[in-house]
Amino acid sequence: QGAPPLRLPAHSPRVEMLVRRFSSPASWPLLVTPAWLQSRLADPSVAILDCSWYMPAAKRSGRAEFAKESIPGARFFDIDATSDASQDLPHMLPSAGSFERAVAELGIDAAQHIVCYDG
Length: 119
What we know:
Layout: H1 13-23, H2 34-38, E1 46-50, H3 62-68, E2 75-76, H4 79-82, H5 96-105, E3 113-117
Parallel strand pairs: 1-2, 1-3
Protein name: Rhodanese domain-containing protein
GO cellular component, one term: mitochondrion
Domain Rhodanese: 42-119
């Protein structure tokens, strides 16, 4: 059955923080429209990542397509280079430290809103 759900009193600071974090009108949206993104292309608090990846049979390269055409200001996020290659399965999540280094190399910090897209 597993552990019972966590129950916090309604006046708990943790509940208030979570509600504020996830429901605040000032928070960034989880899903954005092209118009929203276009109006923020020059905003340094928004980081745009092209995360395009294709199955080998598709004979397409996300990196090559990014080099030809991308959203202005976007950076290419190489899923293959970032995944945990020490695992037997492909595309396994990297450690937190490896992920932090990968995004830092792209010039992304924790204060930015990250918008990911693919081809």
